[in-house]
């Protein structure tokens, strides 16, 4: 069996989100730099369906809390176990992580970003990630960044990581496409039913 490797030897950057008091309701604007929350970490890749925004100037005050393409974002308080990566084709170049998250950037010569996210979604990975969960009060990872760096994980070689990530990413793409097709089909069926109903009403074949 391969030897376990401590994550601290593979991490280039790791930092917590801003303090809760650093982002107030009146800081949010209609468009700007997106601020992440738990709803953006529901899958392997960052979900970009909904955002709140802060100004470029405000975002610049959170230098260490800025996540970029290639970064991994992890929930450390609230819905534990959430972990997603920001793909190279993300909508935005940078994001402000929330007070309940921390971000990690691994050495991309040693760790394939997508692979390690898939790994942490596995039963093995979730057990590792939640091994320092606090059992007092709100669900949280105790000393999140410190304990995350101390985790010891078994990794295959980099080429194998790439191959595994490629296969799983391809499956994800197909699932996402299928979901979009289903959503589009549902929309068309609903629209068709509305048009049909309207036509029947106009023809006095049905009444309400």
UniProtKB/TrEMBL annotation:
GO biological process: DNA restriction-modification system
GO MF annotation list: DNA binding
Top-level taxon of origin: Bacteria
UniProt KW keywords: DNA-binding, Restriction system
Domain Type I restriction modification DNA specificity: 43-185
Stored Gene3D superfamilies: Bipartite methylase S protein (1.10.287.1120), DNA methylase specificity domains (3.90.220.20)
Record field: transmembrane: none
One Pfam entry name: Methylase_S
Protein family according to the UniProt entry: Belongs to the type-I restriction system S methylase family.
Protein's recorded name: Type I restriction modification DNA specificity domain-containing protein
Protein's organism: Kaistella flava (ex Peng et al. 2021)
């Amino acid at each position: 069996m391969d030897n376990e490797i401590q994550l601290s030897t593979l991490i280039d950057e790791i930092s917590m989100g801003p303090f809760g008091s650093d982002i107030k309701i009146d800081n949010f604007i209609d468009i700007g730099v997106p601020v992440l929350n738990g709803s953006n970490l529901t899958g392997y890749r960052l979900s970009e369906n909904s955002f709140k925004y802060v100004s470029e100037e405000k975002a610049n005050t959170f230098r260490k809390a800025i996540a970029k393409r290639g970064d991994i974002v992890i929930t450390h308080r609230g819905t534990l176990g959430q972990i997603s990566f920001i793909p190279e084709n993300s909508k935005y170049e940078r994001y402000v992580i929330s007070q309940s998250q921390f971000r990690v950037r691994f050495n991309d010569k040693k760790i394939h970003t997508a692979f390690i996210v898939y790994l942490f979604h596995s039963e093995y990975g979730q057990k590792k990630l939640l091994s320092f969960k606090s059992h007092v009060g709100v669900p949280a990872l105790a000393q999140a960044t410190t304990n995350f760096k101390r985790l010891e994980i078994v990794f295959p070689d980099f080429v194998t990581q790439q191959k595994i990530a490629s296969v799983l990413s391809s499956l994800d793409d197909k699932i996402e496409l299928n979901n979009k097709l289903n959503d589009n089909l549902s929309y068309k069926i609903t629209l068709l039913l509305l048009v049909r109903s309207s036509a029947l009403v106009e023809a006095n074949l049905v009444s309400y």
